[in-house]
């Protein structure tokens, strides 16, 4: 069903309201039969998008409300979260920063609602990766992350005015004598090896590069 403006060829063109065969509805601008410009799309599952379209795709600025209560507000390119945006997760966590291909990618800040801790730094394909700072209530860690875990040189900075320098090292897997490798061993957590405690220093993870 459609009610609204059409062009000389009879295509939806201008402002209109439509109900799609699957029960979704759209109210907004059309151009030559396609959603184009600003509009609001309501999904039958309870999701809602309000923002810009280009040739039927979410493109430009828009806000997407998900059925689980989470929400993304920011840039879209060809139906993908891409550019800069803010995501509020169903558990109350938030991410504010850069996106590419629907994933956190580039510089961004992730805040954990339960602990108040936040990760400020680089992301690659949705995973914490690169120079970053992990900020807790009374101390913070400055270093590098690889595949979501801290690795390599870094330091803990304490609010009382001192730092503990050191390195996160990847422990070596102990090989057990077994006939068959049944299961993949779980990846071990990197271990912190402290080297010295100092007053506050200007060191940052970019210094090694």
TrEMBL record:
<comment type="function">
    <text>Functions as part of axonemal radial spoke complexes that play an important part in the motility of sperm and cilia.</text>
</comment>
<dbReference type="GO" id="GO:0035082">
    <property type="term" value="P:axoneme assembly"/>
</dbReference>
<feature type="region of interest" description="Disordered">
    <location>
        <begin position="168"/>
        <end position="209"/>
    </location>
</feature>
<keyword id="KW-0963">Cytoplasm</keyword>
<dbReference type="GO" id="GO:0005634">
    <property type="term" value="C:nucleus"/>
</dbReference>
<keyword id="KW-0282">Flagellum</keyword>
<dbReference type="InterPro" id="IPR003409">
    <property type="entry name" value="MORN"/>
</dbReference>
<feature type="compositionally biased region" description="Acidic residues">
    <location>
        <begin position="175"/>
        <end position="184"/>
    </location>
</feature>
<keyword id="KW-0966">Cell projection</keyword>
<protein>
    <recommendedName>
        <fullName>Radial spoke head 1 homolog</fullName>
    </recommendedName>
</protein>
<keyword id="KW-0969">Cilium</keyword>
<feature type="compositionally biased region" description="Basic and acidic residues">
    <location>
        <begin position="1"/>
        <end position="12"/>
    </location>
</feature>
<keyword id="KW-0469">Meiosis</keyword>
<dbReference type="GO" id="GO:0007286">
    <property type="term" value="P:spermatid development"/>
</dbReference>
<dbReference type="GO" id="GO:0031514">
    <property type="term" value="C:motile cilium"/>
</dbReference>
<dbReference type="GO" id="GO:0051321">
    <property type="term" value="P:meiotic cell cycle"/>
</dbReference>
<dbReference type="Pfam" id="PF02493">
    <property type="entry name" value="MORN"/>
</dbReference>
<keyword id="KW-0677">Repeat</keyword>
<keyword id="KW-0206">Cytoskeleton</keyword>
<feature type="region of interest" description="Disordered">
    <location>
        <begin position="1"/>
        <end position="20"/>
    </location>
</feature>
